[in-house]
Amino acid sequence: MLNEPVGTVAGAGALLAILRDGQARTRAELVQLTGLARSTVSQRLDALLTHQWIVPTEDAISSGGRPAVAFAFNSSARVVLSADLGATHARVAVTDLATTVLAERTSDLAIDKGPEPTLQWLLDTFLELLDETGHTVEQVCGVGVGLPGPVEHASGRPINPPIMPGWDGFPVPEWLGERLGAAVLVDNDVNIMALGEHWAARPEADQLVFVKIGTGIGCGIISDRRLHRGAQGAAGDIGHVRVSSAADVVCRCGNTGCLEAVAGGASVAAKLAAAGVPASNSRDVVNLVRQGNTQAVQLIRQAGREVGDVLASIVNFFNPAVIVIGGDIAEAGEHVLAGVREVIYSRSLPLATQHLSIRTSELGDRAGVVGAAVMVIEHVLAPGTVDRAVLR
Amino acid sequence: MLNEPVGTVAGAGALLAILRDGQARTRAELVQLTGLARSTVSQRLDALLTHQWIVPTEDAISSGGRPAVAFAFNSSARVVLSADLGATHARVAVTDLATTVLAERTSDLAIDKGPEPTLQWLLDTFLELLDETGHTVEQVCGVGVGLPGPVEHASGRPINPPIMPGWDGFPVPEWLGERLGAAVLVDNDVNIMALGEHWAARPEADQLVFVKIGTGIGCGIISDRRLHRGAQGAAGDIGHVRVSSAADVVCRCGNTGCLEAVAGGASVAAKLAAAGVPASNSRDVVNLVRQGNTQAVQLIRQAGREVGDVLASIVNFFNPAVIVIGGDIAEAGEHVLAGVREVIYSRSLPLATQHLSIRTSELGDRAGVVGAAVMVIEHVLAPGTVDRAVLR
């Protein structure tokens, strides 16, 4: 970083980084903002115009004389293919460079069928959606995919994903990249949900923790406005933190007393079924809560308390500005939230909770696909990537 | 950040940032590394030479002809005053710009006597140490102070510190700054210990958690190689996380079941005293362990397990590369460490512990003063600060 020549940083990518806020700027303004020579700015603008990353527009505030030409970011320059693949269902979308969803589709999907049939279906769906929006594969600048398991960040490959038989080490980026001719980025589903929610709903928060409560439980962490992946990319796996109320409950991970084993959607559904209330998954639980089933409401509130107990420690340790509760179970709304808040406010330090915002996801089901698009856009529009693309 | 002119970033500070690694470089090398014009580099080097931040040296690898002049960072250009003030004892030091301790003093100190007597003593000690090293106040580039309580980062003032009566909101930076004529930076003691240990012992670790087990328990967090302070500067306060084994133990914070109330040095000493073994603080506990007192060894190992239980959750959530155990109790060495490791390896996810290093502090008692010096040096040598200092 330190030894990177300043010239690269101050290339076309630096101009685009400035223009990405949507505001149009004149050549003179860009010269002033970057400190670059006028001739360099002109050369870089030409490259960006050629690639249609920016469009010329007339400067509205110009007074008298010939109006100065201003340049604005062109969010329609390319499209992004985006997918949030869960254990049992999937959401697939085409977005523009401002993460606006142009077309999308949801579908049941059994991820445990293995990588090839899943990815073939995903490829077909991508192509259908592209067709729907009137775009071609050539206009795709990148592909973002979220998977329900640990993903090695550098390679984009799943690593020992517990609920994805056959996927361990599968080269997802290569498989899709060869067929679509675009960069493919893959990450854990909760990480992309955190990215999406941060981008769309709370971009001003320096620290945000997105907790997904579905069949399992996990969280995505935004630290200093960037995704915190941890030393092995394993950060956020709070589903297997031990909770005191469940010392003897065996978890699918083989340990006992895990949060997920007492508060995950599968666990709550099993408790309801054992009590004679028909429920087989987290969606059933949410439907029962919506119908006002007392047992379901009690269990979901208690699940919220269990999650809150783990989050109380995290609030003391990490001191986030925002906690977002998402995933299927979050759709049970205020009952889960009340349980979470109850414990956090009783257990965390007052200094850390004074301005803490605890809320359900604003993007809801869409957090994943928006986040996958954000991941791609941040990569594609990074100054270094743009420089390499337009200057080659 | 985005709108900061490139010219500022590429000033004298950028040259110093490159030279700080200790390696001497020629003018030509610096032109190549920065991408700046030769005339600009020469002008910036002159400014740095005038302020003695760098010294000229002959390029050793020059072959034939007139040897090229190279420039090296001058770590003796200034000195730093550094202090680690605890609840009952203090360590004060003078260091150079490479954090080498030139003189230091340790002393008993009752922080609860209030800010004025404490800071007056600190000022006197700083001046005595400066005299010992043959330096004057004019050579001091900054002052770093660690305090045993929460500190508001922006103002450097303690905020509601529980064991520091009279210190709430006291303007420590202004009080010392007026008398020493230098920038004063103040932070929580565990934060500076984390900074010191990271700088001196594990600079390559992206994520490091420094746990201080003394009378109380707290931790300092390095994320992306920088101190993570959290939204309210409250991050790292793990002493009041609830642990299951202590549901009915009342903590000094007013809550029950806090980690500190069962595993802190004061708690362990009280348990020993109640069992008829004379001990009144964490140093007594460590001495008993060193003497092989079985009860003390058992209690300290159990304290390690309690701390390990909280750290196991943190490992799952944060996925650090390194956990460092410091503070008085850490001097009981392998017994504490064994307890911590036992629980982390049994409770945390294998992926997150596979390459996790868990160790005691390498700097030991000195982590705080080294860290306070690092805090000052990072501030003083930051490109923007250097630019303002040499170009004014």
From TrEMBL, chains A, B:
Gene source species: Nonomuraea dietziae
Name the UniProt record assigns to this protein: Putative NBD/HSP70 family sugar kinase
Keyword annotations: Kinase, Transferase
Single GO term (MF): kinase activity
Entry superkingdom: Bacteria
Keyword presence, Kinase: yes
Similarity comment: family membership: Belongs to the ROK (NagC/XylR) family.
PROSITE patterns: ROK
